[in-house]
Automatic annotation (TrEMBL), chain A:
SUPFAM superfamilies: FAD/NAD(P)-binding domain, FAD/NAD-linked reductases, dimerisation (C-terminal) domain. Its EC number is 1.8.1.4. This is Dihydrolipoyl dehydrogenase. The gene is lpdA. The active site is a redox-active disulfide bond. NAD(+) binds at residues 185-192, 208, 275. Belongs to the class-I pyridine nucleotide-disulfide oxidoreductase family. Its cofactor is FAD. Residues 6-330 form the FAD/NAD(P)-binding domain.
From TrEMBL, chain B:
PANTHER family: DIHYDROLIPOAMIDE ACETYL/SUCCINYL-TRANSFERASE-RELATED, DIHYDROLIPOYLLYSINE-RESIDUE ACETYLTRANSFERASE COMPONENT OF PYRUVATE DEHYDROGENASE COMPLEX, MITOCHONDRIAL-RELATED. This is Acetyltransferase component of pyruvate dehydrogenase complex. Belongs to the 2-oxoacid dehydrogenase family. It comes from Marivibrio halodurans. Its cofactor is (R)-lipoate. Its EC number is 2.3.1.12. Binds 1 lipoyl cofactor covalently. Keywords: Acyltransferase, Lipoyl, Pyruvate, Transferase. Gene3D superfamilies: 2.40.50.100, Chloramphenicol acetyltransferase-like domain, E3-binding domain.
Length: 470, 457
């Protein structure tokens, strides 16, 4: 066997790609990952991880500013932005090295360069790798898994210039703290940056075209989040659209239309967070006959593209754009290829989604409206943080846990939370959904006291009229 | 150690299949992912891929062999470094006797080793062969309660089973360690698999169907009657042909069918269809049938008493409409399913129907894509058929037959007028759907088709 022949080639070393490669090697396949920029992909280098490092800084900073509430005397709280960014970068760097180590340990070869399907009948499973315009190597494999990820969507008129108009990339490594900031788009990415910059002292205005922020969440949670942000001093404009952007030397003025009226908002910077498009260009999809719809590769439930031996996973295949979705999709794809028994398609209804703003937001499954639209007769339970001992002790009395059950079967259809640490709590409901528990098992589960998790219990009890602490 | 290649279970309900074709021969080197053989189940032919690498040391089951039990060894694979000739002599444990003849060149002694064993899979067989191979094999079904053992089932699966009267010991689990999950129970309800299905008479020995009520056996080609007829070519019954014969015979015999007919005018619908299809950027082409599929699903949602199946203990009322659409294919017909049809939009239905029908014709449907379904639609309008009645596909409670759309004279406000009319015929199972219920459904369906804007809501 020549050295450049593999059982499996994974193009792209993000969370989708590298996890798939490790699982592939575990299954006994000779595996290689082609990565153009940085192992760990967007998630480790420019997404999930560095933003969480920044948000942790914001959280500690916020706590320090409220130290007096806890009986502490702290004076002259301030920050050094360069060090804040440096910490975030070094967290990303450390984890990216960790990925390199894991791949090596699992005997996955890593090829540094930009991979492209060579195309043609024989070339479909051939991957040509280039670096800086120069050819590196041609690889062939029985199975090629594309995991090239996605990037920020550019809106006409709001094109990222890196100076005044930022994408998440620039927003993650600011050189100066903007005094004022406009965030366009209120999905998870937009809201996380809005929350970070607001906490660090910027005057932030969020502009959202839909009628509510965090539009994928349950409307009740969106409304709760809006109220909470506004109380903190964030400005939020919904059903609003940037009609025009005027750029000055050091600031921008956005002409925003809302309720038929226009207003001008001036700010030092504008962050465009209006969605994600798949990296479908220049990777030889057309030549290989892989179907692309809008900006995503079309795949079936096992990530097959329809071209034998070519698969696509992760952000490249469309929403939800989440690292854990990419990982699971990849593992299912490679296990299906290996013929592992009992491989099932990923049930997107069981993928939790988290936003790490303050207060945090987390959910899994159907919203109340979606459940009704699907014809379910439902029972809804709610529990507020104010009724939970641990929340009060933590000084986090603001938040809500909401559960939605099918009245007939007791199936947990959805769970929606906002408040402190809910991103760490949601997996309890995710496990419940995976195990197909009904309200009974959740009621019989013993939750430790005092914890925030007790609210998850109470929200179930509430759905059945048995709530204790409210 | 040589690896036994076992007959795969290509669907949760598959117990045996036909080894239609070998793609490899003895001495061939294979690596994982290579197609070893084609396996034919009752409805589809599927490719069976290698999990392990090695050399085919011996083929145990000749191609064309029918009724090969799941988990029966079908070939022996020598691993790298093993002598294929030695491997070929390896004792074959587990698996059952091939029902059909082995290739003649096989040595009698070996034939016996295969034949001696009873037709039951040895649980450890797969993992004996090679640790990793365990991952490639379907786990044996979980222990059943016949001897008081615990059935592994999720709480939700238990809840639904209890509510719907499903016997969990008869449901095969697709979850981890053979655990029964919601989908399995719903699947069992849809196919009637978990209980004495209405069409399937309980037979004493647990043998399939025929047992209790002997049905008149179909004629044999050797029957003297055929001697009196012109000469003929014998086309052997495919798995699909047998399934069609079995299920429809049972249905026609066991299910008290009754039929209802109604004419619907589709001029408004056709105008709307044109408008939709001509919209800027329309990436769909909705057919009249797509409209009828959607309308039928909505009508069933509005008259849920028609979205039912009859069973011994209870009438099962389904929580959603999974629409089976009859598609004629080479050598028979198949009914791909549009799941949760009522909640899907016209464009989605249209795309899914096209895509499923396309793959149905290529024989590429997966079992879960054509098994199940709560109601069926059959359309012969394209052949100019004015109206017809179909046989219900058990355990479903009904089937709608759609005729051709044609201009007919109609009387409107006392005057003669021309309208485009389709005749719809409904066949329902009278055990679970009464005349008035069926009629209420047809009325709803007519209203929806004639006022198609309601389909958009
Ligand atoms: C600011 C931000 C915050 C986020 N926060 C979260 C979060 O908290 N939780 C969460 O779950 N998700 C979060 N996400 C989303 C998450 O980052 C993505 O869903 C995830 O990275 C997708 O993984 P992937 O493997 O599909 O693609 P990516 O991570 O995009 O990886 C693709 C990799 O492929 C490489 N590549 C591309 N083309 C080629 C080629 N032709 N040849 C070789 N290599 C190539 C790229 O260099 C990249 O490393 C966030 C995203 C952003 C932008």
């Amino acid at each position: 066997m020549a050295d450049n022949t593999y059982d499996v080639i994974v193009v792209g070393g993000g969370p989708g790609g590298y996890v798939t490669a490790i699982r592939s090697a575990q299954l006994g396949f000779k595996t290689c990952v082609v990565e153009a920029n940085h192992l760990g992909g967007i998630c480790l280098n420019w997404g999930c991880i560095p933003t969480k490092a920044l948000l942790r800084t914001a959280e500690v900073y916020n706590n320090m500013k409220h130290a007096a509430d806890f009986g502490l005397k702290v004076e002259g709280v301030s920050f050094d932005l360069e060090k804040v960014v440096k910490r975030s970068r070094s967290v990303a760097g450390q984890l990216s090295k960790g990925v390199a180590h894991l791949l090596k340990k699992n005997k996955v070869d890593v090829v540094d360069g930009f991979g492209k399907l060579a195309g043609g009948k024989e070339g479909a499973r051939k991957v040509a790798v280039e670096k800086d315009g120069k050819k590196v190597v041609d690889l062939t494999a029985k199975h090629v898994i594309l995991a090239t990820g996605a990037r920020a969507r550019q809106l006409p008129g709001l094109e990222v210039d890196g100076k005044l108009v930022w994408s998440y990339r620039e927003a993650m490594v600011p050189e100066d703290m903007p005094k004022s900031l406009i965030v366009v788009g209120s999905g998870a990415i937009g809201i996380e940056f809005a929350s970070f910059y607001h906490t660090m002292g910027a005057e932030v205005t969020v502009v959202e075209v839909m009628d509510r922020i965090l539009p994928v969440e349950d409307p009740e949670i969106s409304a709760f989040a809006k109220k909470s942000f506004e109380k903190q001093g964030l400005k939020i404009l919904t059903k609003a659209q940037v009609k025009e952007l005027k750029k000055g030397a050091k600031d921008v003025t956005a002409v925003v239309e809302m309720d038929g009226k226009t207003q001008e908002i001036k700010a030092d910077k504008l962050i465009s967070a209006v969605g994600i498009v798949g990296n479908v260009e220049d990777i030889g999809l057309e030549g290989a006959g892989v179907k692309v719809e809008k900006t995503h590769v079309v795949v079936d439930e096992y990530s097959r593209t329809g071209v034998p031996g070519i698969y696509a996973i992760g952000d490249l295949t469309g929403p939800p754009w989440l690292a854990h979705k990419a990982e699971h999709e990849g593992v299912i794809c490679i296990e299906k290829i290996a013929g592992v028994a009992d491989v099932h398609p990923l049930d997107t209804g069981r993928i939790p989604g988290c936003t790490y703003c303050h207060p945090q937001v987390a959910s899994v499954g159907l919203t109340e409206q979606q459940a009704k639209d699907k014809g379910h007769k439902i029972k809804v339970g709610r529990f507020s943080f104010i009724g939970n001992g641990k929340a009060i002790a933590l000084g986090e009395p603001e938040g809500l846990v909401k559960t939605i059950f099918d009245e007939k079967t007791g199936e947990l259809l959805g769970a929606h939370m906002i408040g402190a640490e809910v991103t760490e709590l949601i997996q309890g409901y995710s496990i419940a959904k995976t195990l197909e528990t009904t309200e009974q098992e959740l009621m019989h589960t013993v939750f430790p006291h005092p914890t925030l998790s007790e609210m998850m219990h109470e929200a179930v009890l509430d759905a059945y009229g048995k709530v204790i602490h409210m | 150690m040589p690896i036994q290649v076992l007959m795969p279970a290509l669907s949760p309900t598959m117990t045996e299949g036909t080894l239609a074709k070998w793609h490899v021969k003895e001495g061939d080197e294979v690596s994982s992912g290579d197609v070893l053989a084609e396996i034919e189940t009752d409805k589809a032919t599927m490719e069976f891929e290698a999990v392990d690498e090695g050399t085919i040391a011996k083929i145990l089951i000749a191609e064309g062999t029918e009724g090969v039990a799941v988990n029966e060894p079908i070939a022996i694979l020598a691993e790298e470094g093993e002598d294929p000739a030695e491997a070929a002599k390896a004792k074959v444990d587990g698996g059952g006797a091939a029902k059909s003849e082995e290739p003649a060149k096989q040595e009698p002694a070996e034939r016996e080793t295969v034949a001696q064993e009873e037709a039951k899979p040895t649980p450890g067989a797969a993992s004996d062969a090679k640790p990793a191979a365990g991952e490639g094999q379907k786990a044996p079904p979980a222990p059943r309660t016949e001897d008081g053992e615990r059935v592994l089932a999720s709480p939700l699966a238990r809840r639904i089973a209890a509510a719907e009267g499903v016997d969990l010991t008869r449901v095969e689990g697709s979850g981890p360690h053979g655990r029964i999950v919601r989908e399995d129970v719903e699947g069992a309800i849809a196919t009637g698999g978990a209980k004495a299905a209405p069409a399937e008479k309980p037979s004493t020995g647990g043998a399939p169907a025929a047992g209790a009520t002997p049905s008149p056996a179909p004629a044999s080609p050797d029957d003297p009657i055929f001697q009196m007829l012109p000469s003929f070519e014998e086309v052997p019954n495919s798995g699909m042909r047998r399934t069609i014969a079995k299920r429809l015979t049972e249905s026609a015999r066991e299910t008290p069918h009754f039929n209802l007919q109604v004419d619907v005018e589709i001029d408004t619908l056709m105008a709307m269809r044109k408008q939709l299809n001509e919209r800027d950027g329309a990436d769909y082409k909705i057919s009249v049938n797509d409209f009828i599929v959607k309308a039928t699903a909505l009508a069933l949602q509005r008259v849920p008493d028609c979205n039912v199946a009859y069973t011994e203990k209870a009438v099962l009322k389904f929580s959603r409409v999974d629409m089976a659409i009859a598609v004629a294919i080479d050598g028979g017909l198949i009914t791909p399913i549009i799941k949760d049809c009522a909640s899907k939009g016209l464009a989605t239905i249209s795309k899914e129907a096209k895509e499923l029908a396309g793959r149905a014709r290529e024989g590429k449907l997966k079992p879960e894509e054509y098994q199940g379904g709560t109601f069926s639609i059959s359309n012969l309008g394209m052949f100019g058929i004015k109206s017809f009645n179909s046989i219900i596909n058990p355990p479903q409670g009904g089937i709608l037959s759609v005729g051709a759309g044609e201009q007919r004279p109609v009387v409107k406000d006392g005057a003669l007028a021309i309208a485009t009319v389709v005749t719809l015929s409904l066949a329902v199972d009278h055990r679970c759907i009464d005349g008035a219920t069926g009629a209420a459904f047809m009325k709803e369906l007519k209203t929806l088709i004639e006022d198609p804007i309601a389909l958009m809501l």
